[in-house]
Amino acid sequence: IGGGSQADLESKMIDVSKASQVSGNKINYTVTITNISGEASVDVTSIVDRLSFTYPCDQGGATTNYTGSGWVSSVTGDFPANTPKTVATSLSFTYSVDNTIEGTYLNTIEVAAAGESGKSAISSVSNNIGRGGCITCPTGWPFTDYKGNLAVTQGPHTTNPNSSHGRVEAVDIAPRGYVYNVNDGQKIIATHRGTVSFNMSLTGYGNLAVVTSDGGYSTYYAHLNSFDGSIRSGDLVEAGRVLGIMGNIGNSTGTHLHYEFRPPTGNANYECLAGHKLKLESVNGQSYIPKTIPVACYGSGACNISVP
């Protein structure tokens, strides 16, 4: 059943254009409705302005009418309300959308004129908010196929004289009592998407796997007994990809995983997503491992965190 060609659906009386400019976490929009009918004026009967959002890495999204959304904090300025308007030569509207998180924002406006049933003028613009690329924060524990009874044995920023985490955003996780055989094969996995590299020469870290996100931050997985042989340095890995086997290589007093966050060089206040600092401990209720690690804890008893 035919519905007419695209040209048959386009308005012959009005034209609409939408331009945008990103400023930080804000998008500034300008909408212009132009009379192309050749008549002195055109009556606009409908203006529908839609905003849709897609999370980074195609993690889904939604469409909103600008209210009640977790990814739009406010709309300011002269928004093109859906009310009848008369257009002599042209009408322009300028407004801004303040965004609270990173992702892709697609804005579409559709305008209809009196006397043109089933026809409209449409314009869309798309903008990326944030650093671009496929950026996600670390998620979950860096383990799969759990072997034994794992526990946190050292938290971030510890002050114990025996600690190695004085200024490090890292956590140590080990089998309780170190009763573990590396041949049991406790698998270590990436906690986010990124480019993997393997290093055996960084002082103290032993066999080290590093996953660097598109946003520039890295996670370190140290003291591995062995690396996964099916991937190579430079490969792109997704969250959940096995990197190697937990071990006791390097500056290590027993089999464990040293799991560390590192921001891009020179950016101590880096946020993996807008408003989300890259921290192991809970910051304003945000933490990127499933349990809140006590800052400066040392020893499984003091940390008192079982994994998972």
Automatic annotation (TrEMBL):
It comes from candidate division WWE3 bacterium CG_4_9_14_0_2_um_filter_35_11. InterPro entries: Dup_hybrid_motif, M23ase_b-sheet_dom. It holds the Pfam family Peptidase_M23. GO terms for molecular function: metalloendopeptidase activity. It comes from the Bacteria. Residues 176-263 form the M23ase beta-sheet core domain. This is M23ase beta-sheet core domain-containing protein.
